[in-house]
Predict the structure of 3-oxoacid CoA-transferase subunit A.
Amino acid sequence: MKQVHSSFIEAVQDIHDGATIMVGGFGLVGIPENLILALVETGVKDLTVISNNCGVDDWGLGLLLKNKQIKKMIASYVGENKEFERQVLNGEIEVELIPQGTLAERIRAGGAGIPAFYTPAGVGTPIAEGKEVRVFNGKEYVLETALVADFSLVRAWKGDKMGNLIYNKTARNFNPMMAAAGKITIAEVEELVEIGDLDPDQIHTPSIYVQRLVVGKQQKRIERLVVR
């Protein structure tokens, strides 16, 4: 059985200043919002955050950003956050923007123990500057290195007390690969069940990748409401 924490603060209390963390989610879908709120409360700073995006101004990773707790952001998209734009233009934060497929594969490679791989994405652009480029079958490919983290914060729909996780539909997004690429993975689950209650064929993240569990409900905010 994995350690089940009684509070979100307790689950993240050893995330230290200067740590590298991966945070699951796509927009506001599948983000470990309660773990993020706990980090805001702890006041940990100088974080390097690896995530698809930086949330919105008043929710998700946008709260850490607003609180000046993020030193560097590694992401594929940051267009919905005005505070992020302001900090970038003022030189207050370091940013590494990565093509989304490359970001996903760098994280997956980190979890699989693969140190690097070649991809055609970014060849001939500033993304390839300073990186090795090789030709395979007449086509250029740039070498990209894997990403790993000190801590991975993920959100699941259901988990059992062994740490096996199931994600809800598109909330799966970056969560499974980040769970595998963190030295310590902390899973925020909506429902915790007994060992044996999950269908083995439906498990998305095996327990081997999860070190900590914490249970809590999410607000599930809508990032952008579009109506006719």
Observations:
- The radius of gyration is 18 Å.
- The helical segments are 8-12, 33-42, 61-66, 82-89, 100-112, 175-181.
- The chain has a mean pLDDT of 95.
- The CA atoms of residues 172 and 220 lie 14 Å apart.
